[in-house]
Amino acid sequence: MPLHFTDSSSAGAFAAHDWENPALTGRHRLPARAYFFGYDSAELAGAMDRRCSRGFVDLTGAWRFRLFDHPARVPAKVLVSPAVGWDVVRVPHLWQVDGYGRLQYTDEGYPFPVDPPRVPAENPTGVYQRTVVLPEAPPGERVVLRFDGVESYAEVYWDGAYVGMTKGSRLSAEFDVTDVAHAGVNHLVVKVLQYSDGTYLEDQDMWWASGIFRDCYLLTRPKAHLADFHVRTHRLADDRAEVVVSVSTVGRPEAICEVYDGERLVASAPVAPGSDATLVVEGARFWNPEDPYLYDMRLIVRGGDGTVEHVPHRLGVAEVTIVDGRLLLNGAPFMMHGVNRHDHDDRRGRAVGMARIERDLHLMKRHNINAVRTAHYPNDPRFYELCDRIGLFVVAETDLETHGFANVGDLSRLTDDERWQAAYVDRIERHVLAQRNHASIVMWSLGNESGYGRNIPAMYGRCTELDPSRPVHYEEDRDAEVVDVISTMYSRVSQMNDLGEHPHPKPRIICEYGHAMGNGPGGLAEYQRVFETWDSIQGHFVWEWCDHGLVATADDGREYHAYGGDHGDVPNNGSFCIDGLVFPWQEPSPGLLEYKQVICPVRVAYADGVCTVTNRRWFTGLGDVVVTLETLHDGRVVGSRTLTPGPVPPGGSWSESVQLDVAAHGETHLTARVLSTAAHAWAEPMHELGRYQVLAADRPRRPASAVPTGAVTARAEGTSLLVTTPASDRFTVDLLSGGLSWHSHGRELFQEPPRVGFWKPLVDNHQQEHDELWAPRLLPLMQTSTREVSWHERDGAAIVTVRSRIAPPTLGIAMQIVLTWTLAADGVRLAVTGEPVGDYRDIVPRIGLSFAVPGDLRRVDWYGLGPGENYPDSRSAATVGRWHSTVDEMFTPYVVPQDCANRGEVRWMTLTDPHGDGLAVRAVDSGPFAFSAWPYSAAAIDAARHRTDLVPQDRVTVNVNHRVLGLGSNSWGSEVLDSYRVRFEPFRFALDLRAVSATAPHHTEGLAA
To answer: What percent of the chain has pLDDT over 70?
Structure first.
């Protein structure tokens, strides 16, 4: 497709109706061309002069900038000459993030009245100025000005002359400025309006912000040069690859195509403009995400004036086909383990540098992710090059979403309006032309949440005309009327199983699921079992990659991350943008660690003395994999060995007999760690792919030797019961409230007495349960009323029974509680039973015990699941062992504070001070418990909206829970599965509590139930 240049109309030609008319979307804007981005250097973040074989002038960096509140109020003189008193800003940037104007976050609602194609007259407008010094150009050379991202509408002026305009914020635009550019000092002005008619097509779930937010630069091209090229590959028999190349050139010269494997030329052919050239690579190496092999392709154009243009391209031999309803890459089926990724930097918003993008992609690879959906717009052109290089499938989505029309009851309004068809088609056309030569792109996506109508088939038609080699996806085409890959969002596990059991004739993916807002998502393992059961389900993409928090500073100088409403923005959707697997500062969350394990590409199982290793990769063997096996007795490692499966093919298994040293008493676990010996740009050798564990044996423990401890003495004084042990521990029971205090080793162990509770700080993924079940029943306001406290002595111990009722105000539902304290010389045993009253039997956040201990008891040791945070439906990444941490380290720094730090399947845990003194809790009878320990109170966590709202206390809050509700992802996804629900039903549990001292060890072996 030949270049079509901008017009040269004057600045006075601009009028409001020009940019409000969707039919004019493509009038002055050029399509981006992939050949500008064929790097032959690994220096992706630099070496920008390699974009083009001739010249490159970087226009990023410092610009003069002013912000106006209305386009009509921009003084004409600022378009033709520099002005004093302007601010200097860095480009790329978003002016609201840099403190100009106001940030606003909405999920789907437009931030202005819905009146398409019109936008508010008060339209924030930024004016950028920069001088450009150019050398004398050779005769016939063309100068092209390129922008890779400007939001949302821009006009370009050169020395006061109007050059053209562009819309399509996340699509690249080019302007031929040859006729206005000259040797010496040139004056470039760009006028950017925050809103245009194009904004109606750009209602993605993210911050509303504007500016020149990606790179801008000048490219010089010789008189005869490459205008465009398109390369397709096809796998032939005997590992031969067919490479088909077509070109268009300016000046009609012939091009030469050469393909190199390293320094070795493996194929070459002339390519005449308007026709195809076919090259054959013998013994080809085919691109896939597990082995992203790239050849060096070079296109050489020789002009009649002797100039030569070299355009490099990294060529991946990757052919995507659909056969019998299955997606194939080079003839092999595959599954995409993916994420949805927005551009986001916590200090620069969508003005994301390449170093951060590269770190994003490396983190994905380190966590076994092999696919990314560019939600919901094209990325920086270099993003696709990185995906080619490191190996990531890309679902390449264009810049289209009209979600805000759902608020007026007509999501499909623009999508089914033929007056907008040119704008819709323009967006997929520019996207496909720009990126169609990238091996990593596995399918195109026509956009997101824009309903369905006549403009979708038009987009599909243009997309397949420009690139018939790839399938097309669009989730809102629910019946797959035109698209090649059918998709759903947030389908429940049972629904996905039904869809797999009754497959559609076309391949299926779930383009969004597992909403990762705050603490979560839960239930990923159950989804994965369904995905792996049905061949027709070939991709799943967690929503989403990164929290969209923006750095802000509290009054005391501490940093926190802002979200909707923190900038006075109304309306807003609050913290709904804090929904990623990665924290804003690019640290993996517990949810990402869980996802990594769930999609681990190597499976390890052990049964009947045989260890089996299964290759869940799609394209490569296990020649780089070793498996380390550790035998644990009651959580302590007693032996290890390493297995080397060898080159097990995709889908294959390998087995070896493994004799375990089974403990005579207690638990024996086998833990397998899967390691890769390969070195990559994104990981060092011996990085862990995943881990598995099996309980190999659980034998009765040897009865503990009786240790004489003596009897306690007990007496009532007024409303208190005083109990003293031979070791001088002292218990005090309030005979009115039933509260227990415990003085041991010179301190009060309980800063707040243990209490039974059902509430815990709300997690984002339980918001709907809160709104529909808990808030109407006032569960957060439940009150404890003690009805009876009695006591007696038996077998040298004091037995205290506390009967109470826990109930919310105004309602008749309640839980009748009986606590039985056995206060003995060697510690405390607590037995708890609960019997519900009333008609409520639905879910509650937890059933358990909470209390506070002194603030210096901050070292935590436990025998149970670890080392990281885990919950009943998010525990795949955890294994049983002996772990230690601190209260502060265990507290997960969610942007919005909420319940966290849970460790499950715990046999025993201790909280101790630096000297080793403290408290131990042991499970008895009712099985393992879950616990968390926080440097804050539950009420403080619940009330906090940001991390800086939390102030550490001089006590530690401890929660020892009989049962904890699973996480689910119901902030916008699946509810907690039934098997992980905790209901307001009868229960019982028991615990042993002991004071521990460095001088009198508690012997954790004896604490293991």
So the answer is: 93
CA distance 895 to 944: 10
Whether the predicted pLDDT of 15 surpasses 60: no
Per residue in 75-112, pLDDT tens?
Answer: 988 888 766 789 999 999 999 999 999 999 999 999 99
* Domain total in the chain: 5
Domain boundary pick from 165, 195, 221: 221
The rounded radius of gyration (Å) of the Cα atoms in the chain is 32
Let me know whether 690 and 818 are in one domain: no
Measure the CA–CA gap between 900 and 760, rounded to whole angstroms: 10
Q: Which two tokens stand for residue 885?
A: 């941490």
Q: Is 449 a catalytic residue?
A: yes
Considering the domain architecture, whether residues 217 and 229 belong to the same structural domain is answered as no
Q: Are 129 and 244 in a shared domain?
A: no
| Residues 685 and 719 placed together within one structural domain of the fold | no
Active site includes 772? no
pLDDT surpasses 80 at 471: yes
Q: Quote the tokens at residue 139.
A: 């005769």
β-strands 713-717, 987-996 pairing: unpaired
Task: Kindly report, residue by residue over 410-420, the tens digit of the pLDDT.
Answer: 999 999 999 99
Report d(CA 51, CA 70) in Å as an integer: 36
Residue 8: what pLDDT? Answer: 24
Under the banding of pLDDT at 50, 70 and 90, the label for residue 506 is very high
Whether a cis peptide bond, with omega within 30° of 0, leads into 117 is yes
Query: Are 354 and 250 contained in the same domain?
Result: no
**Does residue 115 sit in the same domain as residue 251?**
no
Read out DSSP for 183-245? SEEEEEEEEEES--GGGGGB--SEEE--EE-S-EEEEEE-SSEEEEEEEEEEEEGGGEEEEEE
Name the catalytic one among 401, 449, 905, 975.
449
634: domain CATH number? 2.60.40.10
What CATH number is attached to the domain comprising 116? 2.60.120.260
Same domain, residue pair 668 and 744: no
pLDDT of residue 705: 61
The answer as to whether 654 is a domain residue is: yes
Tens of pLDDT, residues 16-25: 222 223 332 3
Q: Which residue has the tokens 């996480």?
A: 967
Residue of 475, 512, 667, 905 marked active site: 512
Q: Which helix (H) or strand (E) holds 595?
A: helix 590-598
Grouping H, G, I as helix, E, B as strand and the rest as coil, residue 850 is strand
- Owning domain of residue 653: 623-694
DSSP 649: P
Q: What's the pLDDT at 418? A: 97
Whole-number pLDDT of residue 1004: 52
CATH code for position 982:
2.70.98.10
